[in-house]
């Protein structure tokens, strides 16, 4: 039997940061608790101090300015998906959030918890990565902003120090001439995490060629897979099936999927390229949605 942990319920961010600073690695944050509880019961999380973030006031806003959608870390996934600011400025994200788990989980799970959990089969990180989202972080001395691609470092591992807390996610808003989509491939039940998830965004130039493309894949790598150089090479090309297939093949070749109970490594690699092609076709049509593949 492990010793019971001390429970802390700070009401302000300053109080929470002071507790994290005092207890360092022996303290763990719990927000919605949907992932934390499972890991804790399985003995995969150890802590002498559990710091609940749910008593904090604030950090639940979802708002947009001309450049970005900003989501507070304690905003519930369900609230973010339904917020007018999300649906208007980041429709693919709003739609992708509706594919997360089920409404009971989404009513409790927070956006901060989703990114901080760093699960390679989570859906939102695909869209957030493709949109170049930035994670805002605070500690007792100040804070820093980290692009999601630097924040997520490995399977279930982030760049957060023990005394740091995620306060929100800033998601740049794409111009109206971008189209996008998120495809979620399930290999088990309808409410499961993704086996492979693909977020794709595409911008048409006035001459019909491609002015920009973004592709991020989850489930196929420890962290969302993005290949900026491959994306850059796509610019100026006709958005044809051949060009989509060539880009998808580069992603499949770069992937290093893990085998788990949602699929073998070879299965994941095999389905990745056709899924990317399908996602790019939808993005080119400007569907701006998220669907099960
Ligand atoms: C049945 C079920 C099905 C699911 N299906 C899906 C799915 O289909 N797609 C999907 O994407 N996800 C899925 N999830 C995962 C779910 O989205 C996450 O569990 C949830 O988003 C985590 O948020 P939380 O607030 O509950 O975090 P918690 O469980 O409270 O915390 C998760 C981790 O993040 C840390 N943490 C939390 N908040 C912060 C913060 N602000 N700063 C620093 N660290 C923090 C905690 O210490 C912990 O390590 C599923 C979960 C369940 C239980």
UniProtKB/TrEMBL annotation:
InterPro entries: CO_DH_flav_C, CO_DH_flav_C_dom_sf, Diverse_Substr_Oxidored, FAD-bd_PCMH, FAD-bd_PCMH-like_sf, FAD-bd_PCMH_sub1, FAD-bd_PCMH_sub2, Mopterin_DH_FAD-bd. Gene3D superfamilies: 3.30.465.10, CO dehydrogenase flavoprotein, C-terminal domain (3.30.390.50), Uridine Diphospho-n-acetylenolpyruvylglucosamine Reductase, domain 2 (3.30.43.10). Residues 1-176 form the FAD-binding PCMH-type domain. It comes from the Bacteria. The keyword Oxidoreductase applies. Pfam families: CO_deh_flav_C, FAD_binding_5. Keywords: FAD, Flavoprotein, Oxidoreductase. The keyword Oxidoreductase applies. GO terms for molecular function: FAD binding; oxidoreductase activity. This is Carbon-monoxide dehydrogenase medium subunit.
């Amino acid at each position: 039997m492990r010793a019971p942990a001390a429970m802390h319920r700070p009401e302000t961010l300053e109080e929470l940061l002071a507790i994290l600073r005092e207890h360092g690695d022996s303290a763990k944050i719990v927000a919605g608790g949907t992932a934390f509880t499972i890991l804790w019961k399985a003995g995969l999380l150890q802590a002498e101090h559990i710091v609940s973030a749910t008593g904090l006031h604030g950090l639940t806003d979802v708002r947009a300015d001309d450049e970005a959608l900003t989501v507070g870390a304690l905003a519930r996934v369900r609230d973010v998906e339904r917020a007018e600011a999300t649906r208007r400025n980041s429709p693919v994200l709003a739609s992708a959030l509706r594919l997360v788990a089920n409404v009971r989980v989404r009513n409790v799970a927070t956006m901060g918890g989703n990114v901080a959990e760093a699960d390679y089969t989570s859906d939102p990180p695909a869209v957030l990565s493709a949109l170049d989202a930035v994670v805002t972080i605070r500690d007792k001395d100040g804070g820093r902003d980290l692009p999601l691609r630097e924040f997520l470092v490995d399977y279930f591992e982030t760049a957060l120090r023990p005394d740091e807390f995620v306060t929100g996610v800033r998601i740049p808003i794409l111009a109206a001439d971008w189209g996008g989509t998120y495809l979620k491939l399930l290999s088990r039940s309808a409410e499961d995490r993704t086996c492979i998830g693909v977020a794709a965004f595409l911008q048409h130039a006035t001459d019909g060629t491609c002015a920009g493309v973004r592709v991020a894949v989850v489930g196929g790598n420890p962290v969302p897979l993005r290949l900026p150089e491959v994306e850059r090479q796509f610019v100026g090309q006709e958005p044809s099936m051949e060009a989509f297939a060539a880009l998808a093949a580069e992603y499949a070749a770069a992937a290093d999927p893990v085998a788990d109970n949602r699929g073998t490594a070879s299965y994941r690699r095999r389905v990745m390229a056709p899924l990317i092609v399908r996602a790019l076709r939808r993005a080119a049509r400007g569907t701006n949605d998220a669907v099960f593949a």
